[in-house]
Amino acid sequence: MGFLTWVFFILQILLLHGLPISSDSNLSSKDLSEIPKDFLKVAKRVEFFDWMVSIRRKIHMHPELGYEEYETSKLIRHELDKMGIQYKYPVAVTGVIGYIGTGGPPFVALRADMDALPVQEMGEWEHKSKIPGKMHACGHDAHVTMLLGAAKILQEHQEAFKGTIVLVFQPAEEGGGGAKKMVDTGTLDNVKAIFGLHVAPDFPITEVYSRPGPLMAGSGFFEAVISGKGGHAAIPQHSIDPILAASNIVVSLQHLISREADPLDSQVVTVAKLKGGDAFNVIPDSVVIGGTFRTLSKESLMQLRQRIEEVIIGQAAVQRCKATVNFLESEMPFTPPTVNNKGLHQYFQDVAGDMIHISSVKDMQPMMGAEDFSFYQEKIPGYYYHLGMKNETKGKLAYLHSPLFEINEDALPFGAALQASLAARYLFENKPETTPLNREHHDEL
Ligand SMILES: *[C@@H]1O[C@H](CO)[C@@H](O)[C@H](O)[C@H]1NC(C)=O
Ligand SMILES: *[C@@H]1O[C@H](CO)[C@@H](O)[C@H](O)[C@H]1NC(C)=O
Ligand SMILES: [Zn+2]
Ligand SMILES: [Zn+2]
């Protein structure tokens, strides 16, 4: 065998039989503050890092849209099988839920989203998307990889856990309400806390960003058909002009924000779609407009929904048009705001601070982008944070959803180790109230 063949052979053995995680695998006797640093060391080991990179690239080359993540889900299950982790499948079409530990309470969950976007990748590199018109342009390939990385770290210590870590691989984050479907199955009912992350191309690597309370907006979508009466453009008195009505509607919708919303309660209404008319000299029968609205509280979201409908119908009537408004909730359910549990904020700062130093654990302003992690937070105390990826010496990274989006793979160990630490420490710090049996085994899933 040549040298490279040997290296490959040894790597295979390491991957098949699990990596030596820690010289002292008695986690329960360890000082809790050492766990995050230890986990990061493990995740940064060359063979562990290379394994994560290879998984991330495989997923990146085969992006799948919401509820179509069959191959991604298969890859996840294959890796969980190799680690000896039990799981439920399918949950919410393509979702997978894995279990590490005793199989009994308390339960703490880690979440990753699996779906890609309908974007054509424009960057040229060896592992670019092989599927025309689809791309992991939001970094969910990295999220899946980091959760598998966390799973591998945690599984090596499964004997130490008094409780169960629940690995949540969900479909369809990008507007499909995959998290809602997962929650609706009831499989997370007993979970005491859930953690999720997003890669952030504009925050520095080795730093994490979040805040207590509202972190990301709730969002809804709307589409309206404004109907008038078509006719000759030179004889307007015989027509009812839906273009003028639509124009006034677009302007009036902006007044909901400038005149009705509390200036300190951030809100957005954007009309992103406006379609009507094909000729220079014909007034069309109807115009379609559509867009999105965002708020930082669920009450404001519902209030805005009601006012959008009233303004569209009322303003259409001013110009003698009729309007119907559709909030498209069956295809694109309203996403509630992502609101971080205040107690978990302190906990997150402690754990992340132990891993990367507290000066790298930063507060951030809320963002008006939406994230369906909020569906878990409606049921379970949850905490969501952003993981920095920017490395100035390597240059700028394109923003999320860009066809030039890239992952800085150096961030993978940080996400894997931090997620693993958040789950492990949670179980050590939240012991079950009663311990009737000393459960040595974990076959009662
Ligand atoms: C782990 O540490 C605890 C507490 O120090 C000790 O009681 C236990 O025997 C240790 N277990 C192993 C397998 O070393
Ligand atoms: C940033 O990039 C440089 C150049 O590739 C590398 O040497 C350094 O380790 C990177 N920093 C981090 C934190 O990954
Ligand atoms: Zn996205
Ligand atoms: Zn995303």
TrEMBL record:
<comment type="similarity">
    <text>Belongs to the peptidase M20 family.</text>
</comment>
<dbReference type="InterPro" id="IPR017439">
    <property type="entry name" value="Amidohydrolase"/>
</dbReference>
<feature type="binding site">
    <location>
        <position position="198"/>
    </location>
    <ligand>
        <name>Mn(2+)</name>
    </ligand>
</feature>
<feature type="binding site">
    <location>
        <position position="140"/>
    </location>
    <ligand>
        <name>Mn(2+)</name>
    </ligand>
</feature>
<feature type="binding site">
    <location>
        <position position="174"/>
    </location>
    <ligand>
        <name>Mn(2+)</name>
    </ligand>
</feature>
<dbReference type="Pfam" id="PF07687">
    <property type="entry name" value="M20_dimer"/>
</dbReference>
<dbReference type="GO" id="GO:0046872">
    <property type="term" value="F:metal ion binding"/>
</dbReference>
<keyword id="KW-0464">Manganese</keyword>
<dbReference type="InterPro" id="IPR044757">
    <property type="entry name" value="ILR1-like_Hyd"/>
</dbReference>
<dbReference type="GO" id="GO:0010179">
    <property type="term" value="F:IAA-Ala conjugate hydrolase activity"/>
</dbReference>
<protein>
    <submittedName>
        <fullName>IAA-amino acid hydrolase ILR1-like 4</fullName>
    </submittedName>
</protein>
<feature type="binding site">
    <location>
        <position position="138"/>
    </location>
    <ligand>
        <name>Mn(2+)</name>
    </ligand>
</feature>
<feature type="binding site">
    <location>
        <position position="401"/>
    </location>
    <ligand>
        <name>Mn(2+)</name>
    </ligand>
</feature>
<keyword id="KW-0378">Hydrolase</keyword>
<feature type="domain" description="Peptidase M20 dimerisation">
    <location>
        <begin position="218"/>
        <end position="312"/>
    </location>
</feature>
<dbReference type="Pfam" id="PF01546">
    <property type="entry name" value="Peptidase_M20"/>
</dbReference>
<dbReference type="GO" id="GO:0005783">
    <property type="term" value="C:endoplasmic reticulum"/>
</dbReference>
<feature type="signal peptide">
    <location>
        <begin position="1"/>
        <end position="18"/>
    </location>
</feature>
<dbReference type="InterPro" id="IPR002933">
    <property type="entry name" value="Peptidase_M20"/>
</dbReference>
<dbReference type="GO" id="GO:0009850">
    <property type="term" value="P:auxin metabolic process"/>
</dbReference>
<dbReference type="InterPro" id="IPR036264">
    <property type="entry name" value="Bact_exopeptidase_dim_dom"/>
</dbReference>
<keyword id="KW-0732">Signal</keyword>
<keyword id="KW-0479">Metal-binding</keyword>
<dbReference type="InterPro" id="IPR011650">
    <property type="entry name" value="Peptidase_M20_dimer"/>
</dbReference>
